[in-house]
Amino acid sequence: xxxxxxxxxxESRDQNEFAPAGEAFIARPQNPEALTDxxxxxxxxxxxxxxxxxxxxxxxxxGCRKYLLVKRSTISHEVIQVSTFGEINxxxxx
Amino acid sequence: MQKKYSWYSLLxxxxxxxxxxxxxxxxxxxxxxxxxxxxxxxxGLATAYYLAKECGITNVAVVEKGYIGGGNTGRNTTIIRSxxxxxEASSLYEHSMRLWxxxxxxxxxxxxxxxxxxxxxxxxxxxxxxxxxRVNANVLNGVDAVxxxxxxxxxxxxxxxxxxxxxxxxxxxxxxxxxxxxxxxxVAWGFARAASNLGVDIIQNCEVIDIEVEEGRVKGVKTTxxxxxxxxxxxxxxxxxxxxxxxxxxxxxxxxxxxxxxxSEAMKPILHTVVMSNAVHGYVSQSDKGDLVIGAGIDGYxxxxxxxxxxxxxxCAAAILELxxxxxxxxxxxxxxxxxxxxxxxxxxxxxxxVEGLYFNCxxxxxxxKATPGSGNVFAHTIAQDKQHELAVPFHxxxxxxxxxxxxxxxxxxxx
Lengths: 94, 416
Fold this sequence. Notes:
Oligomer: heterodimer
Radius of gyration of chain B: 21 Å
Shape of chain A: globular
Radius of gyration of chain A: 15 Å
Number of strands of chain A: 6
């Protein structure tokens, strides 16, 4: 169990209020028809499943119901950083 | 080392008060093996055993970063069944079930396999339709299964609550009589000892830190106990499969999640069978020691922490109490988590990879224990022949590219 600082509500709330929504920064391909089967499989099914500090999406289901980005350690569950989608993208992540 | 356990050896040791020999020797790695198995859980040890026994490859090492059976093998709720919906999955789990039925004798080690039956409860009309469909599929595949109604369930399990005045009343169940439980760490010890007797080196406290790949082919592994060369490497590291895959430059279609379970204090026998429910999400059996063994679900987030959130346990406890109100004052003794590697279609990957000589057996998710002997058996043949065992063919990693998924969420959507 851990707390997540919702960047929209500006409050530290129990993790139970949020639902996990998968690995972050997986962009839907611009032109799906141009992809090979391997590239499509990688987009749909393959995941980094990183051990360590991991960027993921959560949704504040019992709060503002907005999606947010969370950098969290998958070893200790420590939440390291939270962000809105506008602030951070796959190019400027730390 | 004592090669064979028997009545005679037990009597002799009992009368002479002798110290029992260690069941397996403590090994240091040699510089080279034909095959290295990464991961000394049930599946890895079973793979090594069948490599030695059925494939004639005995120059095998099992490298384990902790102690054998200290990961998910010793953390699951020990349920064994083969009543899966899809032909591919059902064949694989039934193969495993048949191996379970002769396993104690085969290994010369009592794995306490107890065919006490498993009830999979249905709580809605749709649950019952799905159960009937699955039971019919099971029967066509030669797997024993029957549909039972709530009256029969009540007759068999008098303490279960079949009242209609609950949130999710029990309408019926599927019942597999040959299903049951086994002693999970005994399974690891039994396979380890039997494999060791056939010449396999079981190396504990030896963590793989890198995999050497040269021109698209595996060369060996770097470990905390030095470098070891190998012609072939089988990876059976469950929750850490993606970590090992990354060492060889591969990605996998799995994500690691915590799966939790808990046990009560020991009690007199009260529950003689296994009861599972997908809808309310809990499953329970009573171990031979007398404690209730209760399994919950996975947390939705990725984790390698071997612990999960309290709400999952709370949710599961609520489900179990609705099914068995009599358990409301039972005190829980211990609670823990294991890290399971979950595939998108709730089916495992038993497959060669793009790296020659490197094979993966992973993605068993929440239900790998029941498959331990079958998984090891087909994976051993897959490695030995460098060609998938016929039962493993549908479980090739390419199914995520071709789209030929095996959608087993019907039977495996619940943690088990």
